[in-house]
Amino acid sequence: MSFVGSGGYIMLPPGSEFNIAAGGGFSSSISVSIQIFNPLTGLAIGPLQTLGTLISGGTFTLTVSASGSVATGGTAGGLGSITFLANGSGDLTDATVWSGGVAPSGTFSISIPAGITITISGATLSLKMGRCDVSGTLALGSGSDTFTFTSPPTIIVRRGGILLDQTTKKVIRFPFNSIIAILSGGGFGAIGTVLQIFQGGVVRASFTVTSASGPFTCGMLADGSIQTYNSVTAIAVMSGDFTAAGTFLGGFAPSADICSGGCGIQVIGGVTLSTAGLHGVLNFEITSITVAIGATFQLGTPGATTGFKFQFSIKLSILGDMSFVGSGGYIMLPPGSEFDIADGGEFSSSISVSIEIFDPLTGFAIGPLQALGTLISGGTFTLTISASGSVTIGGTAGRGTTTEMPFSTSMMG
């Protein structure tokens, strides 16, 4: 079952049931939730029930009672937590500010709409808050020197949203596997706040915020390091598919929703990122993919003969390995793209593969194919495509030769 909309909820009345059998699955290009509603009034009942972007690998059951209460169960992975929607400003623990009149508890996520401020007072949040989607304001640590999350949050600050530090010492502490993503138009409430990894009573790493606005991403990795980017960046920390939330730090997976202003992908060492679930096309705005030393980026779908198309201009930076795993077709790039392999990096394919430049407006090919062959290694390699579609190639690595072909006016798949 797939949700193919660009927004909104799956709305179910009391008495409904949603079952996924072993071997079945649910997927969506955006994180989606179920909203329980009263069919007589049309009003929501209780908090949102987050499905996320993928439920697979086992069974899943969501049952809505006659009164609207929800019970979930099963063995599948990828299930999100209950999402509480704020409908007024106030403290996190104040039941009156939440849709349904119930305060967050257990393992949960929250959504803060524009114009609403949710305050988490005190020095510590001991509740297990997962995803926090902020279009309004999230205020942390009022009345305390520092503020500490005891469970790793995924904080996403959208356009117009603010993450506000109200601590007196301007220090916010996070455990491993936390991530903050400030989207374009979102911001921090104070420059100079120190973000720390704090595990076992010890500060493992620190970063001082120097900009009050996004885009910006700060990831607290399991190795105790902090990675920061002046972009919205999803960090692949587990081997898996591009479409699976569990592949990425904090479940912060790239999607058309998150990447509407462009975003990057970072694949850390030891991780293999597959694109098989994209079925041959990346049709939302990823502006860069960086593959670290010791990491692998698998492009294409095994057995497919249609190649792989990047619909938007992209920079591919390969410090580790990139492999084309399809059985045919081209790697299709639009003008403005760049493909770089660093010294020590490598490109490989079981078949000889070429890059085809195409016009994203018409789908027509531009100029000759650029042959990569089956292996590029032993040095550097750069292929740069200008805005007009002309290609410049450089570097010291061995590679296939360019295959000259006449201009093609055939529509590509």
State the domain count.
Answer: 3
Q: Tell me the strand percentage band.
A: over 45%
DSSP summary: helix tally: 0
Residue stretches low in confidence (pLDDT < 50, at least 5 long) are: 400-413
User: What's the overall average pLDDT, rounded?
Assistant: 89
Cα-atom radius of gyration: 23 Å
What helical percentage do the residues reach? Answer: under 10%
Structural class: mainly beta
Largest sheet: 11 strands, mixed
Q: Which geometry do the CA atoms define?
A: globular
State the distance separating the first and last CA atoms: 25 Å
What does this structure look like?
The protein is an all-beta fold. The protein has 3 domains: 2-80, no CATH class; 111-229, no CATH class; 233-395, no CATH class. The chain has strands spanning 2-3, 10-12, 17-20, 26-36, 48-55, 60-64, 70-74, 82-85, 90-91, 107-112, 117-121, 124-125, 128-134, 137-142, 146-149, 154-157, 162-165, 171-174, 178-182, 187-188, 194-199, 202-208, 216-220, 226-229, 233-236, 240-241, 263-267, 272-274, 281-282, 286-291, 296-299, 308-310, 315-318, 321-324, 331-333, 338-341, 346-357, 370-376, 381-385, 391-395. Strands 1, 2, 4, 5, 8, 10, 13, 16, 19, 23 and 24 form an 11-stranded mixed beta sheet that branches. Strands 26, 28, 29, 31, 32, 34, 35, 37 and 38 form a 9-stranded mixed beta sheet that branches. Strands 25-27-30-33-36-39-40 form a 7-stranded mixed beta sheet, with no helix packed on it. The model is unreliable at 400-413 (pLDDT under 50).
